Amino acid sequence: MRELAASLPVPEFETTAFTPLSVPLGEARVAIVTSAALHRPDDDPFTATDTSFRTLAAEDRDLLLGHWSPNFDRVGYTIDPNVAYPIDRLRELADEGVIGEVAPRHFSFAGNQPDTVAEVRLDSGPACAAELVADGVDVVLLTPV
Within 13 Å, how many C-alpha atoms sit on residue 31's CB side? Predict the structure, then answer.
């Protein structure tokens, strides 16, 4: 696996998409985008080469970890789902006034997609970003798994 990962091409971008925060963090709406392949039990599970995303409501708690690789260590997530989906930590930050509020929706991709990065970059990634913009999200916390 290490050799395969080391041989995969890494996309290069001429410009960065960094955007300065338009509101103070204490007023910002924050969402999570994870690559943990999380989904609700009634959602279609992620499959191999699945570049789509799943929408997670902020109140969802019964989430399934959809990685299918036998090499993926599920222990951390089983003990504390916040390692991949830190929704409780976001709520604590909102309660403490560090962030303005937790977004109503969050999103999950299946991160183990070495051959389909272009599809995510050109199709499902921008579609997910449009959903975040529609929700008025100011900050996205990316949790790569």
Answer: 22
